[in-house]
Amino acid sequence: MAEKLTRVSLTLPEELLKELDGSLKARGYASRSEAIRDSLRDFLADYKYRKGLKGQIVGVLVLVYEHDVRGLTDAIIDIQHSAGEIVSTVQHIHLDAKNCLETSVLKGPAEKIEKLVERLEGLRGVKQAKLMIIKK
């Protein structure tokens, strides 16, 4: 029996939608819906993996964000300072006039690192947050 589907509405910036449509065509996706479902599965798999991490770990967090979003840069810095015991170093790069990239080397208890990543990735203006585990 087919899985029950529920229709949801999604609001996207026009440029992101154009980029999505271009990548769908290049990859041979049948529809936007199928691509969004695949993306959500990947998002949830990453979430489950991060929640399953235990003990002391070392990782690198990569953030891409819009620096002109009011208060975002200050919020990022405040969060990083509050987690000073696990943030070893931060490198900041200006990608273009609007976007910045930061890499942070993190070392400490998995639960604290996960909490830090959750706080940062949930901020308005953060476009991407990827945690790569170097050592478990």
UniProtKB/TrEMBL annotation:
Matches recorded under NCBIfam families: PRK00630.1 (NF001884), PRK01002.1 (NF002169), PRK02967.1 (NF002815), PRK04460.1 (NF003381)
SUPFAM superfamilies: ACT-like (SSF55021), Ribbon-helix-helix (SSF47598)
Example of a GO biological process term: response to nickel cation
Protein task: Transcriptional regulator.
PANTHER family from the UniProt entry: NICKEL-RESPONSIVE REGULATOR
Upper lineage: Archaea, Methanobacteriati, Candidatus Hadarchaeota, Candidatus Hadarchaeia, Candidatus Hadarchaeales
One GO MF term: DNA-binding transcription factor activity
CDD domains from the UniProt entry: RHH_NikR_HicB-like
Protein family according to the UniProt entry: Belongs to the transcriptional regulatory CopG/NikR family.
Cofactor note (record): Binds 1 nickel ion per subunit.
Domain Ribbon-helix-helix protein CopG, first and last residues per copy: 7-46
Cofactor annotation: Ni(2+)
Gene3D superfamilies tied to this protein: ACT-like. Chain A, domain 2, Met repressor-like
Positions with a binding annotation for Ni(2+): 81, 92, 94, 100
Name of the protein described by the UniProt record: Putative nickel-responsive regulator
UniProt entry keywords in alphabetical sequence: DNA-binding, Metal-binding, Nickel, Transcription, Transcription regulation
Transcription factor NikR nickel binding C-terminal domain ranges (all copies): 58-134
